[in-house]
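Per your request, structure below.
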């Protein structure tokens, strides 16, 4: 009898754990998250420096964030809260993004988020920063964490302790390990040509350039519809239009046209830099040094009624650039409310990042200019995951491409000085700019994240872009840039996309209370077993007393 009672007493804690154990640690949800940028440029690190995530989750307004993963919705994300999480040594930051980033309020969301985005891009974050799209499970977790936050005031300390002990928490665990450098990562640029009048090898060349890669706080979410998807689409359309003119001998212009889709544009135009080095430094005689009339760079053309022409030095009279600018101003005046503005900014050699692509040519003393609807290179929209397809106005993009094409054609065919009218336009009707084709190409580009560390040479964007170029251009080939092995100009890191598992767990206070209860219970059992004879004597007296009476 005594042995049975002892076994029952010892079995009670096990039965208790069987009832509460299955709900304590069980897989709750699995979702995909995109890690923030991590890269090095000229030896300086930027972005999130870690990818490891295994921590209990807390809402952003919680009082205790140390060694916790902070979860926050995009609407609640502010720069002050990010800095607070860093100062309190949070283990990680997970930002929940709404389904459609293109519908965010510009006043409330874009300015607020882009301020945070700029901080995450330019500072070095010790913790991993992840982004995930909202779904019903994540929103339910966020709401439950908000409801049980320690910042909520209970009527008594006991009530707060009870709430903390009975509440369910969550722990996030990322599937991948620590991030590592991507060795020898290639940056590929694509070049194609249209030859001018046959029999003349000394023709000047106009270089048309657009970089295809994008940049944002998370590489896997950087679709860059306007910057620089619009520039790529514009350059493809120019290639199509001028290939039709150059298809017939009588409509050949006395200029060669060279089209360059450069890589690494968001990393100080590394693809253009290597392309220039290949043509200027690695050959005995270079056509590029002596025969380039100017280089025209297209960057962010998809919205606004402004057409800003950025140059490193004011163009002199009688130069090819001055002649082209006169035609551009003349053509743009026929498309109100379009306003062309010349923006002069000297190249700042102290800056690690060049502002515009034409500055790469300027450093090699090649005349160049960039055309953009942006008046400043420091606009945050150039480096934002909010740059999605809905931000591009296809009608304005079509108009801008039309204006650039007409101005370029007037310069190439020596129509400078002649009055520009609708009757004198070259690209009309069947030769006109195709709005539906621009829209389709822009949609194609906006579906794929084109961050430099994601663009692979043999799959996705580059083979498709190369196939389009081969339809319109000749001598299409690649230029590949890789970082120097001893002193790398750029270093990219992996683990940019992670599968995160969310586990439902009890808070630490629950484990403490449970341990105290079990310890107290076992102490009582120990005392009872040590004094079991006294217990039986007491029970026997109680059972025998009624019979004696």
């Amino acid at each position: 009898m005594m042995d049975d009672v002892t076994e029952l007493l010892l079995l009670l804690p096990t039965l208790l754990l069987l009832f509460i154990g299955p709900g304590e640690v069980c897989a709750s949800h699995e979702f995909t998250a995109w890690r923030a940028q991590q890269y090095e440029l000229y030896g300086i690190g930027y972005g999130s420096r870690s990818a490891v995530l295994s921590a209990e989750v807390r809402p952003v307004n919680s009082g205790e964030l140390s060694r916790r993963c902070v979860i926050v919705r995009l609407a609640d994300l502010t720069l002050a809260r990010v800095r607070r999480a860093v100062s309190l040594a949070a283990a990680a930051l997970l930002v929940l993004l709404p389904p459609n980033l293109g519908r965010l309020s510009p006043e409330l969301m874009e300015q607020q988020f882009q301020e945070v985005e700029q901080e995450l891009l330019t500072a070095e974050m010790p913790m991993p920063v992840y982004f995930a799209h909202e779904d019903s499970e994540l929103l339910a977790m966020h709401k439950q964490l908000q409801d049980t936050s320690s910042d909520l005031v209970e009527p008594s300390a006991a009530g707060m302790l009870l709430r903390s002990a009975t509440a369910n928490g969550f722990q996030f665990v990322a599937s991948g390990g620590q991030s590592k450098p991507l060795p020898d990562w290639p940056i590929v640029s694509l070049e194609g040509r249209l030859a001018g009048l046959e029999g003349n090898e000394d023709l000047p060349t106009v270089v048309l350039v657009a970089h295809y890669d994008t940049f944002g706080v998370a590489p896997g979410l950087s679709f860059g519809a306007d910057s620089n998807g619009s520039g790529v689409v514009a350059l493809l359309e120019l290639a199509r239009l001028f290939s039709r003119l150059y298809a017939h001998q009588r409509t050949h212009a006395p200029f060669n046209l060279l089209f360059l889709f450069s890589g690494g544009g968001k990393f100080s135009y590394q693809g253009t830099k290597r392309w220039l080095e290949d043509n200027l430094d690695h050959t005995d005689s270079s056509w590029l040094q002596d025969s380039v009339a100017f280089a025209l760079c297209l960057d962010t053309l998809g919205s606004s009624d402004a057409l800003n022409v950025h140059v490193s030095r004011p163009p002199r009279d009688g130069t090819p650039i001055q002649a082209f600018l006169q035609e551009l101003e003349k053509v743009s005046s026929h498309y109100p409310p379009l306003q062309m503005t010349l923006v002069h900014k000297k190249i700042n050699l102290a800056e690690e990042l060049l502002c515009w692509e034409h500055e790469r040519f300027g450093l090699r003393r090649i005349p160049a200019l960039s055309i953009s609807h942006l008046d400043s290179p420091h606009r945050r929209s150039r480096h934002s995951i909010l740059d999605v397809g809905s931000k591009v106005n296809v009608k304005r993009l079509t108009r801008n491409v039309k204006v650039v094409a007409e101005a370029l054609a007037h310069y190439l065919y020596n129509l400078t000085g002649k009055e520009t009218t609708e009757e004198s336009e070259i690209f009309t009707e069947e030769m006109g700019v195709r709005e539906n084709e621009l829209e389709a190409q822009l949609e194609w580009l906006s579906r794929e994240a084109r961050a430099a560390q994601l663009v692979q040479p043999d799959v996705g964007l580059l083979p498709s872009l190369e196939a389009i170029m081969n339809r319109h251009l000749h001598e299409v080939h690649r230029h590949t840039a890789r970082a120097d092995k001893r002193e790398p100009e750029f270093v990219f890191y992996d683990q940019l996309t992670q599968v995160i598992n969310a586990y439902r767990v009890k808070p630490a206070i629950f484990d403490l209370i449970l341990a105290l209860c079990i310890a107290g219970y076992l102490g009582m059992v120990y005392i009872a077993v040590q004094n079991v004879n006294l217990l039986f004597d007491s029970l026997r007296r109680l059972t025998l007393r009624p019979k004696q009476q």
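The CA atoms of residues 54 and 173 lie 4 Å apart.

Regards,
D.
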